[in-house]
Amino acid sequence: MTQTTRTATGPRTYLMCPPEYFAVEYVINPWMHPDEPVDAGLAMDQWQRLHDVYTGLGHTVHTIPALPGLPDMVFAANGATVIGGSVLGARFRYAEREPEAAAYLSWLRQHGYGRSGGEVRESTVINEGEGDLVFAGRAVLAGYGFRTDEAIAPVLADLFGLPVISLRLVDPRFYHLDTALTVLSEDVAAYYPAAFDDASRAALAGHFAELIEAKDEDAEVLGLNAISDGQHVVLPKQATGLTAQLAAAGFMPVGVDMSELLKAGGGPKCCTLELRY
Ligand code: ARG
């Protein structure tokens, strides 16, 4: 069998927030256990390593200052959704995280969003940014069932001018779409079938030309919480089976250890907000 060659589609621009005030202080997903110790120094080292992996791959990384009292702010993916220069502000499901939305919006406005071309729109509909709203080139995938409201679909279609594929999440361990699916390139995704209902699995099969199915043990270490530039796929290194599947499919997996962030239910993708223009 000839190996498919995958190509990186341009250097990417990411926004990250250092885990300066990171802790597990409340429970809003099944991964969080406030009684289990978190090594704050190790969390910072792991985050820095992820940052350096991105810059090493030629991507640009901006950082937003962490705010005290917002222990989950390190999960930048939830802060907003940025596609084609337009921004949809987040609106969090739980009060504990709600102030993060304004912090991310104000950073984006300060960095030029809304001043030329694109629109910056605040949302009345609950949506947890790129955690649930995943850009797939020709469409936006919108996960719902735990955090983001299904009613976000028309808002996305209107703001970004793209078709929206709504996907119902059914397993509380995979409460954000980016814990159950990763878009590898416009036509290829990896996902954990058991995290979706039948209709959503069918919708994914209809949209993607190629779908890689993650095994239980890889999904359970949040192996699908990965970031692809079309060629390199940065993913939790504990997801050894998925790493092998990606390599066999012609991608270049880059493993990172996010053990401390996993204690809050997050991985590398959660720590990363892609700024598309
Ligand atoms: N503790 C955070 C929460 O439950 C983790 C967020 C992970 N982010 C993500 N994009 N999946 O909200």
Structure description:
- The chain is of the alpha/beta class and 277 residues long.
- It has one domain: L-arginine/glycine Amidinotransferase, Chain A (5-stranded Propeller).
- Helices cover 23% and strands 21% of the residues.
- The protein has seven helices and 15 strands.
- It has helices at residues 40-56, 99-110, 152-160, 198-207, 216-219, 240-248, 259-262; strands at residues 13-16, 60-63, 80-83, 86-89, 120-121, 133-135, 140-144, 164-168, 181-185, 188-191, 210-213, 227-228, 232-236, 252-256, 273-274.
- The protein has a three-stranded mixed beta sheet, with helices on one face. A three-stranded mixed beta sheet has the order 3-4-5, sandwiched between helices. A three-stranded mixed beta sheet has the order 6-7-8.
- The longest helix is centred in the first third of the chain and has 17 residues, at 40-56.
- It is globular.
- Bound molecules: arginine.
CATH class call: Alpha Beta
| Pattern of helices and strands | EHEEEHEEEHEEEHEHEEHEHE
Give the total of beta strands.
15
CATH level 4 superfamily: L-arginine/glycine Amidinotransferase, Chain A
The Rg value, from CA coordinates, equals 17 Å
* Largest sheet, strands/sense/barrel: 3 strands, mixed
Tell me the distance between the termini: 38 Å
Percent helix: 10-25%
**Spans with pLDDT under 50 lasting ≥5 residues?**
none
Tell me the strand order in the biggest sheet.
2-1-15
Number of helices: 7
Number of domains: 1
| Bound ligands | arginine
By CATH, the architecture is named: 5-stranded Propeller
Please state the structural category.
alpha/beta
